[in-house]
């Protein structure tokens, strides 16, 4: 058994409601009175695969690229609460199947064309019909421009996650004038606070932006220019920090916190993600072994979660064996003791399933998390499973996972509000269910959560969490503390609902 360390992450704090909400102009969710500075330089661990919202729009570690050039219909403030943005008011009909949004009338795209209801509806349709990771969240939804400032979203059944979706990747609005331009993948046209300087940028490495002089909310813009450098190697990123080449960077591993603090930098944090394995191919289409629940349970028993927490992130985290967050009505503390660390017991389960000599499992690895992948291979080898790793190459990790090209993978995923989580990683068409694994019992629980009474939905959420934990759909290790290092000249209001801080949460320190 090894003893090193890993981190913890907690869940999204804001719960979404189906009730309508209204408000006035937003102030930027994290703006300050500290004025404006010349430049903000940030480090990211992954570059956007495409700026076209229909192809590459996503949040997580790539959110800052998209927030720079595009606005979302709604926004979150520093507390994670939904606030007005491009949409100033929003309201559901009686059965929560039609959402009506009222838009600002003073917004223009960076190419000078107007942002109106027709443009918004067209952008939302482009996302729905595209290949972006969360495109499935808009399946079945219809978008209509009622007049210049009114958009309706009609859906076949209530979607408790819709309001939140409009504040992240699905709510990004791209200028329709750029839809047919092949260069839109690298030269975005949006209404965001910055404009990409394509001539000064190097795709995949360095992205340079200048403040949008026509931005509708100038008080939310705190820097004249923005540079984002992509460095996927944690050591290289820390070296850039020490050399004064950046104002802020995400810490891939929390074991670097002491080093960061000793360098005079500060660390902002939240708790959002869980780390562990996603056993994607639960039907055994690519890896027949994973179709047997005993194999999936054995994999859960193979991991010394406490040791992983220690080795990878210096203990900044909370052990867990469930993917639903502590804020969920379905969370059950008792489920975190479902699988004890028991390599010998895991071997017995594998033998019962017909694999006394183990088997080989194809997975991905990437240099940014090499230690993690090495430990996964070590722990699985201890129960007889040999991991055959392939590096999919820069920028292809998510793409290849969702293709799908691999039956299982290590992953860091955010613990969303219940309905969004279900449609993010559990439902048959969920983004992170690329094999479309389906179970009649799971389908029944999901239907009740969506259409049942509040009491029925709550119980079904509890039952669903217990069921997928017992069926070992996933092998979570811990909830991770997300840490973002920044210099003392930069104030950061950590976004509680995303792994990378909101761009609007950066400002010059007083």
Keywords:
510 residues; alpha+beta; 5-stranded antiparallel sheet; 24% helix; globular; disordered N terminus
Low-confidence stretches: 1-34
Q: Gap between N and C termini, in Å?
A: 48 Å
Query: What fraction of the residues are assigned to beta strands by DSSP?
Result: 15-25%
Q: With helices defined by DSSP (H or I, 4 residues minimum), what is the helix count?
A: 13
Structural class assignment: alpha+beta
**What is the tally of beta strands?**
22
Quick one: overall form?
globular
Q: Average pLDDT across residues?
A: 90
Largest sheet: 5 strands, antiparallel
Which strand order spans the largest sheet, edge to edge or round the barrel?
1-6-7-9-8
The helical percent reads 10-25%
Q: What Rg do the Cα atoms give?
A: 22 Å
